[in-house]
Amino acid sequence: MIPKKGMIKSTDAFERLVHWWLAITCIILILTGLGMMFHSFNFLGTPLGGLKNLKLVHNFTGLLFAPALFFAILIWWREAGVFKMPEDLEWIKVAGGYLWHVDDVPETGKYNPGQKAFFLAVAIFGILMVASGLIMWFPLSLPSGLVQWMYPLHALGMLVIFPFVLVHIYLGTIGVPGSARAIFTGYVTRSWAEKQCPGWLKEMEEEGRLEIYGEEKEEAAHG
Amino acid sequence: MAEKIKLYDTSKCTGCRACQLACKQWNALPAGQTYNAGTYQNPPDLQSNTWMLIRFQEMSNGNGDVKWLFRKDACMHCTDAACIKVCPSGALFRTKYGSVALDRDKCIGCKECISACPFDVPRYDPVTDKIAKCDLCFSRIDRGMEPACVKACPTGALSFGDKDEMIARAHARVKELGGDANVYGDQFVGGTHMLYVLTEKPDVYDELPERPRVPLTVIAWKDWFKPLTLLAAGGVLAGSFIHYLTHGPKDTSGDDQAGGEGGE
Ligand code: HEM
Ligand code: SF4
Ligand code: SF4
C-alpha cells in the first residue's frame, strides 16, 4: 500500500492516529457491549476469563474512547459536522448515486452528507455513551430515577452507532475501492479524489495547498 | 412442576421476627452492627446480609390511637421480573417454581438489577462485588421443604403452597377481614410469587409501591432497543452484501497515471 508518485495527500498523521484510536476502542466497546447485551454473546467473555473481565475491559476501554472522541470532534467537525445547503440536500435526494444510477451526482467537499451523518451520529451519541456509561459504572452514587434512564440511552446509542459503523466499514473498504488507503497511508489516487471529494480537490488546487506524493509542495502550487 | 406462592397475611403477623432470624440462619447471614433509629424496625433497611425484614410502622387512626403495621419486606418474585430482564450474565433466573433465584457465581456485580427492581430489593455487597437477595429458599423448596421463614412463623401469618390455592386462600381471607383489606401481588408485574394480605390500602404502607411495574426505561432498553439493534445490524450487513452484488462497488478508477486501483 505504499503511495505511488502523483497520489494526493488526504489525511495527515494525526488524523490517521485519531481515526484508528477511535475505531479500535469503538470496536472493542461494541464487541464487549454485545457480550453484555445478549446472553447468546456472553461467550465473548470467555477468552477474557469471564463476563466480569469483559465488563471491566468495556469500562476501561470507555475511558480510552473518550479522549479519542474529543480529538475526532476537534479535527473533523468543520469538514464533516456542518451540512452545506443546498448542495448537500441535492446529494441526499439522489442518495449520492449509491443506491441507483444517477448521471450527475452533486459535487461534495471533503465529506459527503452520508459521511457527515456518520460523523454527527458518532459525535453526538459518542458523548452520550461516555456520559451514560460513566453513570452506569457507578450507579449507586446517583439517584436511581436518573440512573434508570442511562441504560436505554446507552442501548439507543448502540442501536445508532453499531449499524452505522458496519456501513462505514463496508463503504471504506470494498464498497468504494481505494478509500482505505486514505486512512492507512494518507494518500489517495487523483481519480478517487475527483469522484469522492471533487469540491475539496478543486479548492485545494486553487489555493495551491494540494500535496502530491513525490513532488515538492511548491511544485503543486499554481498561484 | 406447579408454581408456588408464599402468602403473607399482615392481619396475623405479630412482628416477632422469627422469619427474619430464620432467614439469616438458613442463609448463613451474619448480623451487622445496627443502631437505634427510634423504631423497633431493625436493621433499618434491607442489606446485602439481610434479605428480608419486618417493617414496623406506626399509624394514627385520627382519634389518638396508634396502630402498629407490620410488613415483611423481601423479594416479591415477580412473574415479569425486571431484574431478570436486565441481568446481563443470566445470574438472576426463574426457577420452575416461578420464583426468582440467583446464581452468585455468575453475578458480575454490575448493579443493573438494582436500578430495575420496582420494589428496591437487590442489595450490593462491595466485599464480594455481587448482589444479594431472597431466593425463596431455592435450596429448600427444591427438596420439597417450605422456605425457612414460613417454617419459623408461629402465628400462621406465613404459608407456602401451590399458586392457585394460595391466591384463592388470600382472596378468601380478604373477604373474611372486610374493610380495607386487600390482596396485594396478583394484579401487577404478571403476578408475584410472594402475596400479601394487607389490612390497609397499599398506599398506607411505607416503601410499598401502589402500582409497581416493570419500569418504562427497562422496556425501552430491553424490549425495543435491544432487538432493534440486532435487526438493524443484521439488516445493514445483508443490505451491504446485496448492494455489492446488485449495484456493485463504486468505480473510483481513472486513466490518470496514479491509477493502480484494485483491492489492497
Ligand atoms: C462506542 C461506544 C460504546 C458502545 C457501542 C457501548 C455499548 C454498550 C452495550 C451494548 C452495553 C450493554 C448494554 C446492555 O446490557 O443492553 C454496554 C454496557 C455498558 N457500558 Fe457501554 N458502550 C460504549 C461506550 C461506553 C463508555 C464510554 C462507557 C464508560 C466508561 C461505557 C460503560 C458501560 C457500562 C458501565 C455498561 C453497563 C455494564 C457494566 O456495568 O459494565 N460504555 N455498553
Ligand atoms: S421484587 Fe425485584 S428482585 Fe424480586 S423478582 Fe421482582 S424485580 Fe426481581
Ligand atoms: S448485579 Fe449481578 S444479578 Fe444484578 S444484574 Fe448484574 S450480574 Fe445480574
What's this, in brief?
The complex is a heterodimer of chains A (223) and B (264). Chain A is mainly alpha-helical and 223 residues long. Helices cover 65% and strands 2% of the residues of chain A.
How does this model look, in words?
The complex is a heterodimer of chains A (223) and B (264). Chain A contains 9 helices and 2 strands. Chain A is an all-alpha fold and 223 residues long. Chain A is elongated. With 264 residues, chain B is an alpha+beta fold. Chain B has 2 domains: 4-214, Alpha-Beta Plaits, CATH 3.30.70.20; 215-247. The chains are: A mainly alpha (223), B alpha+beta (264). The interface between A and B is large, with 52 and 52 residues.
Radius of gyration of chain B: 26 Å
CATH class of chain A: Mainly Alpha
Taken from the alpha-carbon principal axes, the silhouette of chain B is elongated
Mean pLDDT of chain A: 95
What string gives the helices and strands of chain A in order? EHHHHHHEHHH
Instruction: Report how far the terminal alpha carbons of chain B are from each other.
Output: 61 Å
Question: What does the average pLDDT of chain B come to?
Answer: 94
Q: Which value, in Å, is the CA radius of gyration of chain A? A: 20 Å
Number of helices of chain B: 7
Count of discrete domains of chain A: 1
Query: Regions of chain B with pLDDT < 50 over 5+ consecutive residues?
Result: 256-264
Major beta-sheet overview of chain B: 4 strands, mixed
**What is bound: which ligands?**
protoporphyrin IX containing FE, iron/sulfur cluster
Beta-strand content bin of chain B: 15-25%
| Strand proportion of chain A | under 5%
